[in-house]
Amino acid sequence: MNQNYNSGGGSGDDKKNSRVPQPVILLLVFILLAMFFTSLVYNRASSNKTEVPYTEFYRLVTSDQVEKATINRDRIEFTLKDNASYKNDKAQENSKLIQEATGQEVKTTYFTAYIQDSELIPAMKQHNVVISGKLNSDTTALIYNIASMVIPLALLWILFAFLMRRMGGGLGMNPGKSNAKVYVEKSTGVKFKDVAGQDEAKESLVEVVDFLHNPRKYIEIGAKLPKGALLVGPPGTGKTLLAKAVAGEAGVPFFSLAGSDFVEMFVGVGASRVRDLFKEAQKQAPCIIFIDEIDAIGKSRDSRFGGGNDEREQTLNQLLAEMDGFDTSKGLLVLAATNRPEVLDKALLRPGRFDRRIIVDRPDQKGRLATLKVHAKDVPMDETVDLDSLATASAGLVGSDLANIINEAAICAVKHGRKFVSQKDLFEAFELVAVGGREKKNQVMSDQERKIVAYHEVGHALLAALQKNTEPVQKITIVPRTMGALGYTLQTPEEEKFLETKEELQARIATLMGGRAAEMVVFGSMTSGAANDIEQATNIARAMVTRFGMSDKFGMMGLATVESQYLDGRAALNCGENTAAQIDDEVLSFINQGYDEAVRLLTEHRNTLDRIADFLYEKETITGKQFMKIFRQLEGLPQPQEDQEAVSFVESAMAMMEADRASQAGESGDQSSAGQVPESGYQDRVKEFKPQEKESVFPERSDGMSRPEKETPAERSGEVPGAAEESAVERADAERASTGRDASEESRDLAEGDPSEKEKTPAESAEEGKEKA
């Protein structure tokens, strides 16, 4: 793609021919420095003269110490002989400095006032003083003074003109030229096929492209080309790419610039550049003008949105006038993009200027899959890659994030010496982009910290498995990452969702509180690891109260407004101080309910929490499939059929990583199995960190609320006894007491699996469940 970026849309050759050669500028700078140094030496030399009294001068003459004397109109200048000196003679030091700088011998000059003395001349003749006279020339001094001021000013002016030219303002005083980048070849290299995941936005722009291709059929029926289209959406969704695709499909010149390009250091430059931009665009019509981040100059003139800036208002007024004034029949279209439509001036958004507002939102699952295919078309991938599962797991990501995932996966494949991208490369890139940072494999945590982090993460996962309406767990790890997380629990949605119920939000809060609840249940103390969980839970609870109308106290009252919905801006409260305090109380109530629910569930399933935390502590990373397998066996739930269980994007990638680690361990002589739990149980190692158990640490709930009868993710996978009076922990303790098996033996069985359990048919499993009930 040949691109010619011109300043102001003019000819690039004219600017090139008018540019001052670089050697000339360097020569001028050198001359300026030389004159400055010469002037400095001259001033220093001027200060190398010492005034003496006339009587002292006469004494020096009569003592035969004066070598030469020059008589001027008003004073006498003289030098001393080599062996003579004058007391307190500081001028001698200056002479030495000048002599070192110039390399020439310099004598100190003295002067005294000229007095009519008839005895002076005979005395100087008697002592062989060389006498001379000097006539003052006022013209020479005047020329020198003028030259010493004019020449430096001229050089500074030339240097200033050069800098202004480099800034795009012409030879000094024309900074109002537009800095728009013009694609002269009438092709941006981007087509609609290069933009995926934004079908609705492309459909809105197809009509514009057809108008630019076939304007006659629209003009005959009286239709006019929309003067402008405003692309609105979050960052990274492809607004600029869509604008380039419009120009590429239409085959017309494309003027591209940012809103900040109109603003300069001089007042009035913005308005001048707007005029110049539209003037150049009309010369090359039909064409497209694209202004990215138009909110930089299009902010509302209302003071609430930062109005009152005269320079920006002048630029906005000129833009409004130009959009009203140009003729749409020539095919001039203005496209603009912004993330903050709420701050734009109403006059800019009215029909007649920006006739269409096109929403470029985050893509759905289908759009993400199409986007991944577009970015992966030039990347060789092996047969293990499943872009469909990656599109499902990457809910909430935008086009730029997906492009970054593909690129990072390609880099990862090259790093490992492969010529094809695999599923595990995509998962590593997904973690890098979506989760944040790489694994810090060399960071060493103490045993106590690793145990706390293991219980923290298992607390999240266990709450997700025990509650209804939660996203399934895909991965649990206690390996620190470069973004600061000491571990994380990855949950991805099973399907695309656009609405969330109150129960789902409450379950999310309880899941977020699971980490802190696990710390308190096991260790009886709090850590700073729950900071991010608390922040997320607070945001959810505050949105439930102020925006979603889910509070019993305030009902369906809107108490907050999101300031920048496409930039994830904060919600500004629309209430007084007393109401704000009541809102805080209601938010705290939602959070406390979630925390109490988390504590209750983890206390009831304490054995499951300990056993899975033991497994995670030893392996550092486990998959969601491993987690659910151990969870089902500990809770007495039947395992699902392998052919009926869908394999997620994370599961497939983790399985490949596990196979690679197993093969590497086999080559090095390590015969241990990939999923084996160590002999020693975890309970013994935790004892030293557990405080003395107190029954009153977690009192019973006083509100009388009990866990609702609802189906959990674990219950959805098989039949569960619903009338059992004892908890899963009590059943497990009773079975161990009857069989005499300890916790370490049972952990091995859970990791390796029970052969007899695997051979059971679904009918036998269902019958066994009925017998237990």
Automatic annotation (TrEMBL):
Gene Ontology CC: one annotated term: plasma membrane
Keyword Metal-binding: yes
Polar residues biased stretches: 665-675
UniProt membrane topology term: Multi-pass membrane protein
Name of this protein: ATP-dependent zinc metalloprotease FtsH
Family that this chain belongs to: In the central section; belongs to the AAA ATPase family. Belongs to the AAA ATPase family.
Region (Disordered): 659-773
E.C. number(s) listed in UniProt: 3.4.24.-
Highest rank taxon of the organism: Bacteria
Compartment annotation: Cell membrane; Membrane
Binding note for cofactor: Binds 1 zinc ion per subunit.
List of residues binding ATP: G233, P234, P235, G236, T237, G238, K239, T240
Subunit (UniProt): Homohexamer.
Ranges that cross the membrane: 24-42, 142-163
Keywords associated with the record: ATP-binding, Cell membrane, Hydrolase, Membrane, Metal-binding, Metalloprotease, Nucleotide-binding, Protease, Transmembrane, Transmembrane helix, Zinc
GO molecular function, one term: metalloendopeptidase activity
Known function: Acts as a processive, ATP-dependent zinc metallopeptidase for both cytoplasmic and membrane proteins. Plays a role in the quality control of integral membrane proteins.
UniProt xrefs under HAMAP family: FtsH
Domain AAA+ ATPase: from-to ranges: 225-364
Regions of compositional bias (Basic and acidic residues) in chain numbering: 682-718, 728-773
Annotated positions binding Zn(2+): H456, H460, D533
Cofactor: Zn(2+)
Catalytic residues as annotated in Swiss-Prot or TrEMBL: E457
Pfam families named among the record's database cross-references: AAA (PF00004), AAA_lid_3 (PF17862), FtsH_ext (PF06480), Peptidase_M41 (PF01434)
Gene Ontology BP terms: protein catabolic process; proteolysis
